[in-house]
Amino acid sequence: MDYYDEIAPRYNSFRKEEQLEKARFVKGLINPKPKDKILDVGCGTGLSMSLFQCDIVGVDNSEQMLKHNPYRTKRADAEDLPFPDYSFDYVISITAAQNFSNVEAAVKEIHRVVKKVAVITILSKSKKLNLLKDSLNRNFSSVKEYKLRIDSAFYCIK
Questions:
Q1: Which residue in 88, 127, 133, 75 sits closest to 107, CA to CA?
Q2: 20 to 30 Å CA-CA from 29: which of 8, 22, 145, 152?
Q3: CATH topology of domain 3-157
Q4: CA 133 to CA 39: how far, in whole Å?
């Protein structure tokens, strides 16, 4: 069984405050309007999604995490998003990038489906941090990095 499938029933009890803190930061960066469309890549149980009062959909590849998510979701990999080009005003991904199997492919998919801005956070200690940073800089016209408590956040303008 996959790690996230295994921890899904307990995930909110030990990650809730940490995830909500990051989601509040991300929400403050993009300040979405009620009619905006957002995609949450690696949405898990929907903790981050709970803060947004707009049209939000999440994707995750863990079936068990999605079973604990009360919002609109699809099971999908970040590297193969099941949406047409330019489907979302914003794409967010909160502490999921270190789990992408192919960072470059995931970034290209995020770039493909977003109209305006993507905000991606990753654990600062992740071995994939520099790979993510390089890929974002190759694919987006502007990338600004923020240091959070345990994550690095990237505000990426298409």
A1: 133
A2: 8
A3: Rossmann fold (3.40.50)
A4: 20
